[in-house]
Amino acid sequence: MASELLVQSPNDVWAWRAWAWVKFDQLKLAQSQHLQFAEILQELWTMPSLLEEPLLVEQISWQLVKHGYSLLKAGEGFLPKLITLFENAWFNRLEFAVQNTDVRSALLGLALKIAGSWDLFIPFVRSFDLSKSSLKDFEKEFLPNGQNYPAIIERTLIAVAKRLLPDFEQLSADEQGYWLSYFEWADDKEPSLLYVKYYRVKLLLKSSDQQGAALTVLLPFARSKSHEFWVWELLSLCVNSDLEKLACLCKAVLCKTQESFLINVKQQLALLLLQMGKLSEAKSEVQACISIREQNSWHVSASLRQLTQESWFHTTEGAGNMIAFYQQQAKLVQSLLYRDLPMTEAVITEINAEKKWLKYITQEGHEAGFPYHQLWPKPERGQLVTLYLSPSDNKKVHWVQALALPQGTLANWMESYEGTIKFTKGGFGFVDNIYIASQLLKERNITQVQTVKGTAVKVYDPVKKQLGKKALTVEIC
Fold first, then answer.
1. What pTM was computed for the model?
2. Which residue among 26, 33, 309, 370 sits deepest, i.e. has the most Cβ atoms within 10 Å of its Cβ?
C-alpha cells in the first residue's frame, strides 16, 4: 500500500513518510537476518527527506545499534559485516542526521567495539564531533553487577590515541593541533579522566617542540598521583637532563607495585645507567630484568642478552641491593615535581614543637605559618628556606627546600643592625626602627638599655598597612 502510494506520488513527503515507517517495521522484524536487515537499511537511505525526520532517524539508529551488538555476540566472523554496515550507515546518512545525545552515545559505543579493526575509525571520530557530547558522556558507566567502565569520552580518546601515536610525529602541525585540542578540551572539562591526561602527554611528547607543554600538563597530575609508578615513568620522558631522568625512574621503581609491572621501567633504567657510566648499577638492573622475564616465562630480547655478552658486563661487579641507590637518586624528584609552582624565599621565625607548627616571614615581608611535620621534619629557627606555594592563593605551602648561602652572608632581603636598645611598657624593644619581640629578649636575658646587634627582616604591618622591620636575632655586643 505504502509503496503503491509512493509510485503514484513520488514527490509527496507524506507518501515517503508512510513508506519509510513501513520499511522501519520491516527493519525491526529483520533483526535476526543480517542480509535482509542490510538491504532494508540501504533502502531507507534512499528517502530524500530523511534528514528532516529526526524521530525516524533516531529509531533507525537504535535498531542499527541493536543489530550491531547481536552481530558482535555472533562471533568475530561477523565483524567485517558489522564494519561495512556501520560505515555505510554513518557516512551515507547518520553523520548529518543524528542529533539526539543518547543516540549519538549509543552509536559511539558501537563504533568503539569495532575501532581496533576499522580503518575509518579516525575519520569517523573526526566527523562525529565529540564537542557535541553530553555531560553524561564524561561519567563512568556502571553495570548491574557492580562493575564500571571508563566514561565513553575517555574510552574514545584512548582508542584515538592508540591509533595516532605510532605515526603522530608524521602528521602536519595542523592535524596534530586538531587532535590535541580534543584531549585538552576533555581534560579541562573533566580533569578526573585519568587516561585522557596520560595520552594527552604521550601525544604532546610526539609533537614538535612540545616537551615543555607535556611537562606543564603532567606536573599538577603527578603531584596528586605521585604513588603511581607509571606517572614517574612518563615524567622521565618529559625532562631533559640525565640526572632528572634517573631520579624519575628511581622513584618509579620505589613505588609499591608488583615487580613484574616495573619491567619496562627497569629496562629503561638499565640503559640510562649504562649511558651515564654507572656500570655496577647498570649490571644489577640488567640482571634484574632478565630474572623478572625468566620468572614470568617472558621472552628475553636479543638486545638485553647482548648486554650480558659485552666486556663491561664481565669486568664489572654488580651493585647488589639497589634500594639505597634508588632512594638517594630519587631525592631530586621533589624539586622537579614542584618546579611550576610560585616560590618565595623565607626565614623560619618561630617553632611550636608541641603543635608541630612553624611561622615564617617571606622576602616580601609577609608572615604566615604551616604544620611542618610532613614537609620539614627538623626545622630550625633562623633557617632560610624556599617555599613552593599554591598557585591559587600563594598561601598553602606544598614543599620546602633549604636555602644555602655562603658562610657569613645574608639574603639580599635581610640586613644586619647594631645600636642601643630602647624598651617599651609592653616588654618589647626597638633599635632605631627595628622591632625586637619580648620573647627574643627574654631568651637572651636582655633587660636593660645597652648596645645590641643582630639580623632583621622587613615585615608587613597589617594595622599600619606598611612595611616595618623585625629582628630575627639579637645579642649583646
1. 0.74
2. 370
